[in-house]
């Protein structure tokens, strides 16, 4: 992909700040970044958390691998290079949401540590909360669940570069939260996340 360089381009400040928007919403914008194998439970947990947050009166928005790849990132595949660009763009999109004061629930396999660290760095630079949520289940559990039948296809060689089968997954070293979705109920996972958000003053 041809890289476009931003030259002679300057940030233009407005007269309304993130803080103004956060006061309006009575919450702090933040990104909760769910990472883990396909079938680990990222989307299921994010959907349940979104519902719980909205019920409590908090504005949040989910960004999800499959959905984003059907739209803004439809030109990207699953090579390491394309996954890096996928995650970089989603990192920037997440930041835009955080700047509006919204709580973003980003669920992506995001198998490479360097790609996730870049998104963390992007948030840190703008003094934004970034919580890495590692949805950690053994490959055998994810494969047994196989909610979309993709592991079966990967084992049959019909899908190449499938994370966990013939492509790597680099586990987070210091995630803010670990969810072992094979040992925890969905309700407990949501409770743990709400507690963590409350502790950090996000909600
Ligand atoms: N090769 C390969 N490896 C992993 N996953 C694959 C692949 N091909 C298709 N899929 C489906 O795409 C979803 C992962 O997209 P992501 O954007 O989250 O991937 S990544 O973060 O860029 O690695 C993933 O969604 P989830 O199952 O929700 O994780 C799969 O449904
Ligand atoms: N405690 C749990 N948390 C999350 N998912 C669970 C849990 N227990 C069972 N599951 C099941 O595991 C599967 C996870 O699929 P999904 O959320 O699509 O994973 P991912 O988004 O990581 O690919 C779903 O079928 C879900 O019902």
Order of helices and strands: HEHEHHEHEHHEH
Count of structural domains: 2
The gyration radius over C-alpha positions equals 17 Å
Largest sheet: 5 strands, parallel
Give every kind of bound small molecule, once each.
3'-phosphate-adenosine-5'-phosphate sulfate, adenosine-5'-diphosphate
Shape category: globular
The order of strands across the largest sheet is: 2-3-1-4-5
CATH topology of the largest domain: Rossmann fold
Class based on secondary structure composition and strand pairing: alpha/beta
Word description of this protein:
The protein is α/β, with parallel strands linked by helices and 203 residues long. The protein folds into two domains: 44-135 and 171-203, P-loop containing nucleotide triphosphate hydrolases (Rossmann fold), CATH 3.40.50.300; 137-166, no CATH class. It contains eight helices and five strands. The protein has helices spanning 18-25, 42-55, 65-70, 80-100, 113-125, 139-145, 150-155, 186-199, and strands at residues 30-35, 60-64, 103-107, 129-135, 177-179. The chain has a five-stranded parallel sheet, with helices on both faces. Helix 2 (42-55) crosses helix 8 and helix 4 runs parallel beside helix 5 (113-125). The longest helix is centred in the middle third of the chain and has 21 residues, at 80-100. It is globular. Bound molecules: 3'-phosphate-adenosine-5'-phosphate sulfate and adenosine-5'-diphosphate (ADP). Adenosine-5'-diphosphate binds next to helix 2 and helix 8.
